[in-house]
Design brief:
With about 575 residues, the protein is mainly alpha-helical. It has one domain: Sodium/glucose cotransporter (Up-down Bundle). Helices cover about 70% and strands about 0% of the residues. It has a two-stranded antiparallel sheet with strand order 1-2. The protein starts with a helix and ends in a 13-residue tail after the last helix.
Length: about 575
């Protein structure tokens, strides 16, 4: 069987599995739709959280970015991994004990204000929508290769698939579907890495093979450094100390933004007890580490094989995978000098090959000439990663609109059936909008996701962390801080992202900080304003201060109910 036949078979079987699980576990009540009934086991929730966490950015884009950025790409590894630890240890158990479905719900109750809840839900929608745009690009990349169609058509196929199972299942269906998706994506990510590690350095453990010796006796990374220098690129292992500013700010934005990501936080409401929330956080960290420690090895393998395959070779002798990725329009060869050879160089004026970094993980097994079933498996894993996170994000948008906006503000007497209908309509609108935006996103998948993390850091992080640990923080401070933080960060991103129509240029970055890292400054502005305003305005009611004290006491609590 060829690659296409294997891909049809494996992707078809995995999708059939997802659909069966989604139908079996579909939500029949608001409690099941929002928090899966509050009865998911810590192990299952850990796997679902890992699948939710390891989006298309982690699966498709992170290794691709590292393969081109080298050491500098470590900011994504450190930021996302460190951020999850911060979330699991510092925030999740306290939010779970508070017993609210969503971040806007927490903020509305903690700051005793519907205005605060409304501001938070608007921020949640913006953050989640930005994030899901990145996922939809990942879906489009995977489907364009799977079906061998242009990227834009792949996006439209992805819209239809995400629409179907996110609208159907709610959190209960999504949770158990994500358990299946985690198994698929982690198997699909590690199997090719093991094959290629054996092929290149003779070691079956990619994390060790990454530093291994090739058949010609040279270290893999030394060989990659030499290949990169010969083409005019910076050495792969160069520490990038010339841009320490962005290394710090992007890493920090990813870490702090993690703590404010609504679609991850809500996962800790799906288990019965606070103790189970802590356990599931530990399981998730273990499951996440498998992929995150493998990604740097895949990046180095892919980059080495790519350079050796295409550099200064005749276009006519390029293998089949090259032509198929050309069909997706995510790999473009332009023979500038008419010699029929591919000049892959750092010099943009002479370079003839443009490669979308988001294709590297999917193309990696093809470049390494692995068996067809392995190539198909990687496509199935990429779809699992993108679809699992997209569904979680869409659910956040749906709950923000149906539960926080309609139920809590506009229509307090809405029936449970009406609330579910509103949630599903919200998902439908969001998935179509995100898919259309994903056709021309403001960067590679991981970069778009980094923007979402920055927005989360600038809006939610101070409100949540101060809401838990500062009894004196009041509604005036929280509302003002969130508004200023999100507006500053949004404006900066718009101004310096040409894809969004902004007029700014990199020479005018504030302190040299890229848009992906500006969320840290937005977070600091938010925190300072929040603290200042809260100290010059009236203290929160004593009942709220007592509640804050109670949140920090590590006792178990019952699962939240739809009415609270």
């Amino acid at each position: 069987m060829g690659v296409k036949a294997w891909t049809m078979l494996i992707v078809g079987l995995t999708f059939l599995l997802y659909i069966i699980v989604a139908v079996w576990a579909r939500a029949g009540s608001t409690k099941e739709f929002y928090v899966a009934g509050g009865g998911v086991s810590p192990l299952a929730n850990g796997m679902a959280t890992a699948a939710d966490w390891m989006s298309a950015a982690s699966y498709l884009s992170m290794a691709g970015l590292i393969s081109f950025m080298g050491f500098s790409g470590a900011q994504y590894l450190m930021g996302w991994t460190g951020g999850y630890v911060l979330l699991a240890l510092l925030l999740a158990p306290y939010l779970r004990k508070f017993g609210k479905f969503t971040v806007p719900d927490f903020i509305g109750e903690r700051y005793y204000s519907n205005t605060a809840r409304t501001v938070a839900l608007l921020c949640a929608i913006l953050v989640s929508f930005t994030y899901v745009v990145g996922q939809m690009k990942g879906v489009g990349v995977a489907f364009s290769r799977f079906l061998e169609i242009p990227f834009t058509q792949g996006i439209f196929v992805g819209i239809a698939i995400v629409f179907f199972y996110a609208v159907l299942g709610g959190m209960k269906g999504i949770t158990y579907t994500q358990v299946a998706q985690y198994c698929v994506l982690i198997f699909a990510f590690t199997v090719p890495a093991i094959f290629i590690s054996l092929q290149m350095v003779g070691n079956p453990i990619p994390q060790i093979g990454f530093g291994g010796t090739m058949q010609d006796g040279t270290y893999l990374l030394d060989k990659l450094n030499l290949l990169s220098k010969d083409l005019g690129f910076e050495e792969y292992t160069n520490m990038g100390m010339n841009d320490k500013t962005n290394m710090f700010f992007i890493t920090a934005a990813l870490m702090l933004g993690t703590a404010g990501l609504p679609h991850v936080i809500v996962r800790f409401f799906t288990v019965p007890k606070v103790r189970d929330a802590r356990k599931s956080a530990g399981y998730a960290l273990l499951f996440i580490a498998i992929l995150y420690t493998t990604a740097p090895a895949i990046a180095a393998f892919a980059r080495t094989n790519l350079i050796q395959t295409v550099s200064d070779k005749s276009y006519a002798e390029m293998p089949a995978w090259f032509k198929k990725w050309e069909a997706s329009e995510l790999l473009v060869f332009e023979d500038k000098n008419g010699d029929g050879k591919i000049q892959y160089l750092a010099d943009a004026t002479k370079n003839e090959l443009v490669i979308d970094r988001d294709i590297m993980v999917l193309a990696n097994p093809e470049i390494a000439n692995l068996p067809a079933w392995v190539i198909a498996l990687v496509v199935a894993g990429g779809l699992a990663a993108a679809l699992s996170t997209a569904a979680g994000l869409l659910l956040v948008i749906a709950t923000s609109i149906s539960h926080d906006l309609l139920k809590k503000n506009i229509m307090p007497n809405i029936s449970e059936k009406g609330e579910l209908l509103a949630a599903r309509i919200a998902i439908a609108v969001a998935v179509v909008g995100a898919g259309l935006a994903g056709i021309n996103p403001p960067g590679f998948v991981a970069q778009v996701v980094a923007l979402a993390f920055g927005l989360a850091a600038a809006s939610f992080f101070p409100a949540i962390i101060l809401g838990i640990f500062d009894k004196r923080m009041n509604r005036e401070g929280a509302i003002t801080g969130m508004v200023v933080g999100i507006l500053f960060t949004s404006f900066y991103i718009w101004y310096f992202k040409p894809q969004l129509g902004g007029p700014g240029s990199p020479e005018n970055y504030l302190f040299g900080i890229k848009p992906e890292g500006i969320g840290v400054i937005g977070m600091l502005i938010n925190a300072l304003i929040s603290l200042l305003i809260s100290r010059i305005t009236k203290a929160p009611p004593q009942t709220v201060q007592n509640l804050v004290e109670d949140i920090r006491i590590p006792k178990g609590s019952v699962a939240p109910t739809a009415g609270h």
